[in-house]
Task: inverse folding
């Protein structure tokens, strides 16, 4: 198992992406600490993991509150004897479907502020523990609008680009300490973004399925990444097999973006 004997923290583990990553990490032997603001959703993921023979604990944590994050990380580090992986997958509450020049400043800037705040706070809290042990992986997830122009995505694309820029800077500072920083960049898994797909489908006067088909047509593989794909790539990037990778983006766009 690729993550055996590793301890992993996952913020937003009650969501579709965080839950998929949690299940994949558990399958590969990681001891999980699931964090979020809705315990019922976290507990559901933890029960499923436990039923499959995995180990997962849950905690109510506001990943936008520094003291909440610092307290949580200190408790996990003490209990687990260290933290090997920190994955932040909380939603960034973006508004889409509105032209930028018709959008309020608040709606535009909110996802940018939220994304950079939570990634900064969670990375800042865990990094000293990883530095002390001389190893660790800090991970985050972005999307293709970080690199290519999509209409009507509001501040989402800018937020994704900001996260990727932060990851590069963080990697430069933490690399000499043995800590890696990785982004996953997805083209979007339809099962996790139904509401967003509906907004864009309506804006293009097509059905959701027709809009999904147009997104698939933009990729080289003629498909979009599934949540299982996200979990599998997250496992690989968190594992020692990716030990030479940092300050980079794992391109999970199915060829929507070609590096």
Result:
């Amino acid at each position: 198992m690729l993550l055996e004997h590793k301890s992993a923290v996952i913020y937003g583990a009650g969501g579709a992406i965080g839950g998929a990553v949690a299940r994949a990490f558990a399958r590969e032997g990681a001891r999980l600490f699931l964090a979020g603001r809705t315990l019922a959703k976290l507990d559901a993921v933890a029960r499923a993991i436990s039923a499959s023979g995995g180990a997962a604990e849950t905690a109510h944590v506001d990943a936008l509150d520094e003291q909440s994050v610092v307290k949580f990380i200190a408790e996990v580090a003490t209990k687990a004897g260290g933290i090997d992986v920190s994955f932040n997958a909380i939603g960034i509450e973006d508004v889409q479907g509105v032209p930028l020049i018709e959008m309020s400043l608040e709606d535009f800037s909110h996802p940018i502020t939220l994304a950079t705040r939570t990634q900064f706070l969670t990375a800042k809290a865990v990094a000293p523990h990883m530095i002390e042990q001389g190893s660790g992986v800090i991970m985050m997830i972005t999307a293709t609008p970080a690199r290519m122009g999509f209409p009507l995505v509001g501040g989402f694309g800018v937020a994704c680009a900001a996260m990727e820029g932060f990851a590069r800077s963080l990697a430069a500072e933490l690399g000499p300490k043995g800590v890696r920083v990785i982004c996953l960049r997805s083209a979007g898994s339809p099962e996790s973004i139904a509401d967003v797909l509906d907004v864009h489908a309506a804006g293009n006067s097509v059905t959701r399925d027709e809009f999904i088909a147009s997104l698939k047509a933009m990729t080289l593989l003629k498909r979009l990444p599934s949540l299982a794909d996200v979990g599998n790539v997250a496992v690989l990037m968190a594992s020692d097999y990716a030990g030479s990778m940092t300050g980079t983006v794992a391109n999970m766009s199915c060829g929507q973006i070609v590096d």
